[in-house]
Design goal:
There is one protein chain. With about 300 residues, the chain is mainly β. The chain folds into two domains: about 180 residues; about 80 residues, Immunoglobulin-like (Sandwich), CATH 2.60.40. About 5% of the residues lie in helices and about 40% in strands. It has two helices and 24 strands. Strands 5, 6, 9, 10, 11 and 13 form a six-stranded antiparallel sheet that branches. Strands 17, 19, 20, 22, 23 and 24 form a six-stranded mixed sheet that branches. Strand 22 and strand 23 form a beta hairpin. The longest helix has 15 residues.
């Protein structure tokens, strides 16, 4: 279930009191401590939409040990808001330790602002800040206010922060603010990876080559997929770029006409083969007079030096 962070065990931060035009900060800081109580137990399951906060979420503050929500006792930053300003009152790291996709949500619920005053609440996950929301008269404190929401990667820590502020036009002084901070981790739908479609648009840089001469095969496939080109008992591989383009050099040594096809693979498997293209491989021509010409030159050289006479 969601994790609730009361303010100082029921004690709340106070706004600076104003005497004439002077603001005097109270010595008490905004302290947030763990209540040690969970709203209800929960279990992780294979069903998307399940609340897996208690089972899969771990928390750490200031480089400390990772612990379960029930054992976490965060310490506030000491920030005290003044009219027209806002700041982070609590920050710590969280991570999802279960091997399931999940989304973390920061929200405010059960908040309170005394003496008819107003305040603002906001959440942050990593570099992503949610919308600033005003609480106070005319807003039902039992209504859940979503502050920030973001998918979290398994076993990768992400910093979260709760932000408190006071509107610039606020005139009520010395009131108490409890942000009613909460968070929860909800299991997402699993990401299904499908094998790529067959590569398309296969072309050759030459329709006929000699044995041992590579032919460049090009085409288009799913971006990022691994493409395997085969033909004449040989193969070559390439990775499709961000636009899906790929090419590789295939060297066929067997004389004849050979169909060439390509397949693309990703985490979902290997897709079907492409429409084939054909390359003709011809035998490499030989030079029948090359050996005798070399011998003649050698004999002439020997004759100059009189080697036959010796």
């Amino acid at each position: 279930m969601s994790r609730f962070f009361p303010v100082g065990g029921g004690r709340v931060a106070r706004l600076p009191r104003r005497t004439a035009a002077v603001f005097t900060a109270l010595p008490a800081a905004l302290l947030l401590a763990a209540s040690g109580a969970l709203l209800a137990p929960s279990l992780a399951s294979a069903a998307p939409g399940d609340d897996i906060t208690d089972t899969c979420l771990q928390m750490s503050q200031n480089g400390g040990a990772w612990v379960a929500p029930s054992a976490f006792g965060p310490v506030g930053t000491g920030y005290i808001p003044v009219p027209g300003d806002s700041g982070t009152v609590l920050t710590f790291d969280v991570r999802n330790i279960c091997d399931v996709p999940a989304t973390l949500t920061l929200f405010s619920q059960g908040w309170s602002v005394t003496d008819g005053g107003t305040a603002t609440v906001q959440g942050q996950i990593g570099s992503q800040k949610g919308q600033q929301v005003q609480i106070g008269p005319g807003v039902n404190s039992a209504t859940r206010i979503e502050l920030a929401k973001k998918p979290v990667t398994t076993n990768v820590g992400v910093q979260v922060g709760f932000i408190l502020g006071i509107p610039g036009g606020e005139v009520v002084q010395g009131n108490q603010i409890d942000g009613g901070w909460n968070l929860e981790l909800i299991e997402d739908e699993p990401v299904v990876v499908v094998a790529p479609a067959a590569p398309t648009g296969l072309t050759l840089d030459a329709a006929e080559v000699e044995t041992g001469t590579p032919v460049t095969v090009s085409g288009t496939a799913e971006p990022g997929s691994t493409v395997t080109v085969t033909g004449g008992g040989k193969s070559c591989t390439a990775t499709a770029d961000t636009n899906g383009n790929f090419s590789c050099q295939l060297t066929i040594t067997e004389v004849g006409s050979h169909p060439i096809t390509a397949t693309a693979s990703n985490a979902g498997g290997t897709g079907p083969a492409s429409t084939p293209v054909t390359v003709t491989v011809a035998a490499e021509p030989t030079d029948p007079g090359g050996s005798s010409g070399s011998s003649t030159g050698s004999l002439g050289s020997l004759d100059v030096f009189g080697s036959f006479g010796s």
